[in-house]
């Protein structure tokens, strides 16, 4: 009977994975608040609002939410047939997220489409209007420009003229001239610099100059991605701010009252109320167990109201208490919430019950790189480059938030259904401190500084550079199929030095051995990269000054970093749909021993989990907008269906 149930769960899981692209398949209706619940929630929202930010439920406040922007845009287009002004706002938001050359090209396109005088059709003599477009992104939200209310009103009075028919926004005056002059000035600078993207041959000085400029370009690219500051290498982020605020003000004056009185605004409030309600296990439908760990299981699940598939990590509080690992689990939850990156498995929701704690994560259906290495022996160069690039950016995302990962290995790098790799399992991730010390992770991937001791025999402190050593081990393993410090050569090196156990031999090799990178497996640039990443002296190790050092290495010279950073690069390998569907018999079950049964959870144990519950606002917004886009495309409301039928929720 258990085998039959396992087979049914396997079939449901594989079918759910295979039908994801067909659209959301919700099985629960969205809860709707009563008038009393909504009033209490609105009052609480106003009370918690920042005194320095927009007032809750105002235009600026609402458009800072991806859901609010989507629904206001839908109201303007579907009810008011007013496209051009909100399309301009949407295009400016997209432009602000772009980089380098494409950003300049988009700025010119926005200016010519919305701000310059109408183009005229040569045959008919009619004005050419911009195309009417819909929001297709799941994360488009507006950051309010730093222009205060009085200045906005002055700009509106001096710029907006409904009778001005020379452009589709009805704008005139100095703000259009400022945009035009800034774009023209930057274009002149680009032409004057005339720096070639590549240097073929030439003197060593010219080649060095080209390399330096390439390095600076990578630095500018990653600075923007890492959001430390915008270097304004292309155009200032404020280029369209004045035009944007007056356009939003014109929309507010003409349409906001109607929007607030519409069903669209009611949906918006209901969705935000739903986001703030407590998440519970019954919000998810479990499909099958994917694996088991020390504290619990990882289960493929579906979010009932949206039909979105996730991985649910369930950890038993008693097991955590038995192993005194409360702080370890809390640390994982905190670091997951702090780092949101396309290169790291992201946390969507966290909640807990009396017995268990839950993490809802990206569902990675393509298996781990350890599994794929075992199947292939080693990776082709295209795959090595792609995986290495994304893993590097995942590590840097952690470092930028002040964390060190400490557990990088192929088994902790997961593929999604398309083949995009992400770092997972942040249980050993921790904040970098001046006294951080001690080996953590998997032997053979440890950096030498994790093993060193001072003259008094005490462990020595380390920082983020330990991750770049582990990274070097992984890159070498991708290329050759073997970790340099978990190889026969490393074992022999340690044993010959008098180490008595396999573990001590590996540690000795990590500290003292300089691996060989044979020509038969490593091209020259690959060997050089691995050697510099596996440098024993962490102060000289590649990556010490940040990931740009590694990105600029010649091994990556043909990689389009723009496409990698923007998550647009198509993976070189697509895993099979059912790669994670291992038989339940192999996964096994937990044995509830006497110690577990006798462990008692006390009130004081709950202090560890008092801040555990969390909803990722970006993940929630993406669920809602994907749901709304599907409704828009089909022209019908999504209705909840039986979980067993696998089909299609009425939305408020």
Write structural notes for this entry.
The protein has 652 residues and is of the alpha+beta class. The protein contains 25 helices and twelve strands. The strands form four sheets. A six-stranded antiparallel beta sheet has the order 3-4-5-7-6-12. A two-stranded antiparallel sheet has the order 1-2. A two-stranded antiparallel ribbon has the order 8-11. Helix 5 (84-96) packs across helix 10 (241-260), helix 7 (149-159) crosses helix 10 and helix 18 packs across helix 19 (502-512). The chain starts with a helix and ends in an 18-residue tail after the last helix. Residues 195-203, 206-215, 228-232, 584-588 and 645-652 have low confidence and may be disordered.
Task: Describe the secondary-structure layout.
Elements lengths: L1 H17 L16 H14 L10 H5 L2 H13 L5 H13 L3 H16 L3 E2 L6 E2 L20 H11 L14 H20 L10 H23 L14 H20 L2 H14 L7 E9 L3 E8 L5 E8 H6 L3 H13 L8 E6 L3 E7 L6 H8 L4 H20 L2 E2 L8 E3 L5 E3 L6 E2 L16 H4 L13 H16 L7 H9 L5 H11 L11 H10 L13 H5 L9 H5 L18 H4 L6 H5 L15 E2 L1 H18 L18
Brief sketch in words of this structure:
The chain is α+β, with helices and mostly antiparallel strands. It has helices at residues 2-18, 35-48, 59-63, 66-78, 84-96, 100-115, 149-159, 174-193, 204-226, 241-260, 263-276, 317-322, 326-338, 369-376, 381-400, 448-451, 465-480, 488-496, 502-512, 524-533, 547-551, 561-565, 584-587, 594-598, 617-634; strands at residues 119-120, 127-128, 284-292, 296-303, 309-316, 347-352, 356-362, 403-404, 413-415, 421-423, 430-431, 614-615.
